[in-house]
From TrEMBL:
UniProt xrefs under HAMAP family: Trp_synth_beta
Gene: trpB
Modification N6-(pyridoxal phosphate)lysine occurs at: K113
GO CC field: cytoplasm
The protein's name in its UniProt record: Tryptophan synthase beta chain
EC id: 4.2.1.20
Catalysed reactions, semicolon-separated: (1S,2R)-1-C-(indol-3-yl)glycerol 3-phosphate + L-serine = D-glyceraldehyde 3-phosphate + L-tryptophan + H2O
Species name: Chlorobaculum limnaeum
Amino acid sequence: MSTEPTKILLSEDEMPRQWYNIQADLPTPMPPPVGLDGTPIGPDALAQVFPMNLIEQEVSTERWIDIPEEILGILKLWRPSPLYRARRLEAALGTPAKIYYKNEGVSPAGSHKPNTAVAQAWYNREFGIKYLTTETGAGQWGSALAMSCKLIGIECKVFMVRISFDQKPFRKIMMKTWGAECIPSPSPLTAIGRKMLEEDPDTPGSLAIAISEALEQAVERDDTRYALGSVLNHVMLHQTIIGLEAKKQFDKIGRYPDIVIGCAGGGSNFAGISFPFICDKIHGKDVRVIATEPEACPTLTRGPYVYDSGDVAKMTPLLPMHSLGHRFIPPAIHAGGLRYHGMAPLVSHVKRIGLIEATALPQTECYEAALLFAHTEGFIPAPETSHAIAQTIREAKQAKEEGKEKVILMNWSGHGLMDLQGYDAYMSGRISDFPLPEEMLQRSLSSLEGHPQVPKL
């Protein structure tokens, strides 16, 4: 019988007090954001959208950035999060691999998202901002920001992608419970929303549309700014507390992962678990890092590395990223948090320079993996998290075939208790796979015409 605990815990005193900024260690600098003419933009170009204290983090190349005490105090409501050994899953797979998962579902909102939501709300309040607008796909981010704004003391308005608004009614109730206004997107409240509804009254919506609506309302008032739950550098920064904790937890048991896995939509939970380990890889450590996405929205695996806008109205600067095209309307898969056309520039960059791998999985395989996880470990995963689980199972089976005792770490990014309609649809045979058709991808990529080219490595 192993003496290793099921849960590897840290005390509050052991919680990281700084965020890790991977930009300090990149072997090749990331291309800058640019305007439509290809000219690099400066921090001032973002000032209508974000407070300057967050813009400073966005452009920083400092390796370590201190976490303010008030933010630490709120994070301690659920942090440090536990690292679990998935022994029952290992036994069910008959694998020699040792599987560990970082449980981010213990936050009040049920996912990793509050790690940055609390920070963003705090920095906005410190800058004098009274209102935040945002978008949300599956509702995880909207719930996290609603909670964080209430704890910090500012107001919140959330534009929720219409298909998720309809599929996940309890998420909007969570947001309302925390005092936020939740609006299905596209909506008649904004010019871009009205335009999209005119083009297609039955559109399921997209994160790119919801972002445009939130941005449009944010720039109308001086006391209002916009908050983004993924993609941007400062969001990746705030999430690194996940991986930093995990490294300390592995130190406690004298292990180190051979493989680190996270699901990837915009990139935040993947960056959070992986960037501290990618730092080790940059400095010579042998570790594989895998980002896993839906085959219906295969940004890293089939999207070209280009300059593209983060939203459908092209209100954001052009960012260097893997993209399916800002006009991409993703299929209505149940992993709503992974239905974004672009990937975080930092995640895209580490993929481009060969520091990570990427896979795209069918959603039926992911639901099957989620059920096996629930049957063995008890926790019901979010549909987004199921992609990381499915990839972990693939790697564990590969370890069995090779007869190798690998250590696998995955980010269990959130629970699925608000996503049970998706489970019901899968168990009732109403979920099918949707490999993105090439003609649909090429039609969406045509929106990139006229954009400047990303410099070659």
